Amino acid sequence: MKKLIATILSFILLLAGLGMVFANGNYIQVYDNGIFSCQRELLIYGPRNIGDITSTSYTFNLERCIVKPISLSGVCYDSSVEPAVNLGQCEYMLSNYNCELIYDNFELLVYYNGSGTITVNGRNFDTSEYKSPIPFLLHDSQEYDTEPRTFEQIPSSITISADGDFNTEGFGIILERQCCWGCVKKSLPPAILYPKLDIESFNVAGGPSVIRDGKVLSAFQMLPGSQQVSLQVENRGFFTQNDARVRFEGLPVGVVVNVTPETQTIKAHNLGTYSGTFTVGSNVPSGTYQVTMVAFSPQGVFDRITFNLVVP
Hints:
The protein has one helix at 2-18; strands at residues 27-30, 34-49, 58-61, 71-78, 85-93, 97-111, 114-120, 123-126, 134-139, 150-151, 157-166, 172-185, 197-204, 209-212, 215-216, 220-221, 225-235, 241-249, 255-260, 264-266, 271-280, 287-297, 300-311. It is mainly beta and 312 residues long. The radius of gyration is 23 Å and the shape is flat.
């Protein structure tokens, strides 16, 4: 997630520097019985001057994406085959589709001229550390991120103020919204529109199964040293998941896990297999620790299973 957020923030800043902020990036992934699409919309452009925010703060509301659009347009890709085939520009009328809003976010640029502190929804940003424009990402996420320019929950409004030696006529903002929907034809039975990844198994090389069929069977016992394990997740959803990942939470100090590959593509109703290497340091105290295996993507967490790690 951190890598994705850093990439988005860098991309926003790059486009701003090129004078090409928020280029049209609408696309539609076409499958046999449905579509997945992300649409970008420039809500505030210019940048819009927001007045002297050193004396009076500037507040504006964030309008969330609608549940179901009337139509979707953009560059279409036939994603029923690999690699996906570019079909060119197309448009889908959605009267015969059931749609679900999967993900939305806002990308904000704050412009200034001068030096001091810019405050966005109570968070302070020293201009000696952040050049103009300062990029922000606002999205709903179950993961905490240490990057202060990332907001893990989309607020109903944004308030911006400043304190310092600024050109009072040099403040401005640009705001873009991205909405992503999954849609299936109404003739189909209800289905999970976005890929639903479930943890399937955790097997110790030459040892017992810790997790099988999504259920914990035994504790994971490990002496100081290294141990290879095999991890599997299953895509029970309708669409191919292009960025499926696995991590572990709650590890005691001195225990690390390396999972490979870092990310992979898993087709609908298929398994993804990962290799994991657990390393327990010699100074890890004996005991039983609760560790959680997490299946996730940059859009959020799909599944969690907690098991016991026993260090004799």
